[in-house]
Amino acid sequence: MLLDIIHGFEQNPFFFYTIVFIFALCVGSFLNVVIHRFPIMMEREFKESCEDYFGTECPAQQSGVDQEGFNLIKPASCCPHCGHSIKPWQNIPVLSYLMLRGRCKGCKSKISLQYPAVELLTAALVTVTAIEFGPSWGFLAAAVLTLYLIAMSGIDIKIQMLPDAMTLPLLWLGLLLSLKPLFVDPSQAILGATLGYLSLWSVYWLFKLVTGKEGMGYGDFKLLALIGAWTGPSMLPLVIVLSAMSGAILGLGLILIQGRDKAQPMPFGPYLAIAGWIAFLWGDRIMDSYLATF
Ligand SMILES: [Zn+2]
After folding, report:
1. Which residues make up the environment of ion ligand 1, defined by Cβ < 5 Å?
2. What is the DSSP annotation of 208-226?
3. What digits encode the pLDDT tens for the residues 265-289?
């Protein structure tokens, strides 16, 4: 049965890409929920351990923190401005946004462009992995990596924090997949994870000793460790160069477009995620063509 489906997809790749694109649009819609609600759930956890430790009440920063039974599934989606509940037909990825002309049905306030943007980005990137790997286990694993990287980037942009609950499982998954091995063998995965963590950790401490400032956080080390587990240590220099480049390009773009204050801290996680994703998919080819030019 499964083999028949895979065979059918191989015969008709365009059909496969279309199915993947539509499915990924829906998953992208869920990633919006994750990016919105996960930080609130994290704050609730911080607040509870804080109250446990100090034995005093801590005020909540975000709305929803004190809400009973708040998680990724409950309560049903609603407009953050007027509480108008979103019907299933108003929750179709991208299409609903276009049909509602980007405004809430209840109070006509603007719906953030983030929602269709995350949906389209998810669909596009997952489809690229489908084109790269074809209908295979490699594609499924690469799609999971892609989804997590998008969710983590969104959360890092929102609260300047990469949740352990996302970086660590993906690190373990990268190590487990190396047992097969799906992408790199176990020694490569272990070295990649360890050197990934240590390289940014040492940069962090050097930077802190020299300037007294903190340039990044421990979440960034874990993110590079997980990228190393999926790509092996040979890709780490490329990941660091690419993330610095995308950081410079996007950062400059943001300063030019938004007039963003240069001193405002920018999360490093999304740039690492972009670079790690590119190195995971095309790192070998980039390295080969780079070496061929010398
Ligand atoms: Zn509304």
Report:
1. 79, 81-82, 84, 104, 106-107
2. HHHHSS--S-HHHHHHHHH
3. 678 899 999 999 999 999 999 999 9
